[in-house]
Amino acid sequence: MSLASVVIVGAGQAGFQVATSLRQAGYDGRISLIGDEPGLPYQRPPLSKAYLLGKIGATNLLFRPEKFYTEQRIELRHDRVTAIDRQNRRVLLEGGEALTYDHLVLATGAHNRPLPVPGAELDGVFGIKTMADADTLAPLAKQARNVVVIGAGFIGLEFAAVAASMGSSVHVLELGDRPMARAVSREMSELFSQAHRRWGVHLDFRQGLTRVIGDNGRVTGVETSDGRTLAADLVVFGIGVIPNVQLASEAGLDIANGIKVDANLLTSDLHISAIGDVACFPCLQNDEQPTRLESVQNAVDQGRTVAARLMGKPAPYSALPWFWTDQGDMKLQIAGLSSGYDSTVVVGSMGSAQVSVLCFRGDQLIAVESCNRPGDHMAARKILARPPQLSPTEAAATDFDLKAWEAANRD
Amino acid sequence: MPTLTLIEHNGTVHQVTGEIGQSVMQAAMFASVPGIQGDCGGACSCATCHAYVDDQWQVRMPEAESTEADMLEYAVGRRATSRLTCQLVMSEALDGLVLHLPESQY
Ligand SMILES: Cc1cc2nc3c(=O)[nH]c(=O)nc-3n(C[C@H](O)[C@H](O)[C@H](O)COP(=O)(O)OP(=O)(O)OC[C@H]3O[C@@H](n4cnc5c(N)ncnc54)[C@H](O)[C@@H]3O)c2cc1C
Ligand code: FES
């Protein structure tokens, strides 16, 4: 299959990766990478952590400098794709142009779920998605005295840790009964609850808000579901994301909590792939259930998989999901997917905050969550890369060591 | 500005100039040197920015912190001279540093 032109919509983590991997694999045709954000493609993870703390500057968020795109003949366009004309295999740009493709990759990511209460539009109420968001937020975070965070997911908690370290009084409202509930075990939630409390963060579970209160257009507080008023000069919410499927759905592609793709990451149109936060794929580590993941690993590995396929090396996507989050002095690294676990084994001591939680479904190890135990995380990635033979009984033995087990059970 | 020499596994030599405070991984990426992937963007979470310090330099290197050391245990093709380049910060002290890139990161 010879492709003269690949068009990529979305110049984020996944779009950048597919472009780069295509060139690395020797693709010689035209690559157009279209993104609607200003500036050069950049990474998002530091936006809610190191970048806000001023530990890394804007240049160091960039994947590559400008000359890379020229050298690699990756046509980076700052524009918005407004429609896909599948019949004529072209995309229409807001700027008025049309670009034809032999293959189209949709890497449009996701946008923050908006805060569904009155007052959400007030100044000082933020979601964190883009560099522009972080740039506006950073100076406010430094000055803020009372911060309310809505949602105890990864981004909310990362920001809570940052704000607490800057000396703000931080209050987190979470509808669920524990932090990061969608992604980690109860034990790991508990470890992070303890840590945040240690940093002075106030965690309020089973608690929503009814409105954001303001004065002269600026936020001054929030009203909680149980009727209290909390003072706030800054409100940051992280209550999940909504995949950017509009283009795909208007073009008639199958949609199911994201753009539906098969094991090869192809959409219902053979000339269109979808990857990254927007793609809903049959996930091997989730019983091949349609799954949408929001992580750097997923964006990068899916980008590589599509590039390889376009270069004549198709393979079903099977990469092991892994993820990290940095909060205060705690580095949590997760290998595998823990959803549906029914038992756990804790390795290490909760008191020392150097802990790995092994999550099992029946006798099957499905995920390992490691806090400040990077060696365990890397061992777990090896163990989980093939059907793991580690049983809960074995793991529960006194002095069990994951790295040692991995070393002893290598091929 | 400190200069680095990065040698690919096939012998190709790259001279890279980086800014003080930038990581070696970033300097290498910005110079489009192949052989450093840096999937996690420098969060010390992926071990795909692995490189070998040249023998001449080994004694002069700052010691790896525990996270880096732990991650390195599992880097593909690990040796005594292995480092994660996202954890090496460019400084005058590292001016002239010579690194060899592993074959696995292509
Ligand atoms: C604050 C924050 C912290 C994070 N921390 C971590 C972390 O610690 N670890 C981790 O693994 N993951 C983390 N993530 C998640 C990770 O960044 C995402 O999973 C990843 O960026 C997804 O890549 P993507 O390319 O699918 O989407 P994105 O990177 O979001 O890129 C999509 C791009 O497409 C553009 N676009 C959309 N529609 C159009 C259109 N019609 N025309 C043109 N352009 C369009 C968007 O504007 C956007 O720039 C974090 C995310 C955020 C926001
Ligand atoms: S870039 Fe990921 S560990 Fe260095």
TrEMBL record, chain A:
Pfam families: Pyr_redox_2 (PF07992), Reductase_C (PF14759). InterPro entries: FAD-oxidoreductase/Apoptosis, FAD/NAD-bd_sf, FAD/NAD-binding_dom, FAD/NAD-linked_Rdtase_dimer_sf, Reductase_C. The lineage of its organism: Bacteria, Pseudomonadati, Pseudomonadota, Gammaproteobacteria, Pseudomonadales. Coiled coil: none annotated. Residues 5-303 form the FAD/NAD(P)-binding domain. Keywords: FAD, Flavoprotein, Oxidoreductase. This is FAD-dependent oxidoreductase. Gene3D superfamilies: 3.30.390.30, FAD/NAD(P)-binding domain (3.50.50.60). It comes from the Bacteria. Its cofactor is FAD. Residues 322-404 form the Reductase C-terminal domain.
UniProtKB/TrEMBL annotation, chain B:
InterPro entries: 2Fe-2S_ferredoxin-like_sf (IPR036010), 2Fe-2S_ferredoxin-type (IPR001041), Adrenodoxin-like (IPR001055), Adrenodoxin_Fe-S_BS (IPR018298), Beta-grasp_dom_sf (IPR012675). The keyword RNA-binding does not apply. SUPFAM superfamilies: 2Fe-2S ferredoxin-like. The keyword Membrane does not apply. Its cofactor is [2Fe-2S] cluster. This is 2Fe-2S iron-sulfur cluster-binding protein. Keywords: 2Fe-2S, Iron, Iron-sulfur, Metal-binding. It comes from Pseudomonas aestuarii. Belongs to the adrenodoxin/putidaredoxin family. Residues 2-105 form the 2Fe-2S ferredoxin-type domain. Pfam families: Fer2. The lineage of its organism: Bacteria, Pseudomonadati, Pseudomonadota, Gammaproteobacteria, Pseudomonadales. Transmembrane segments: none annotated.
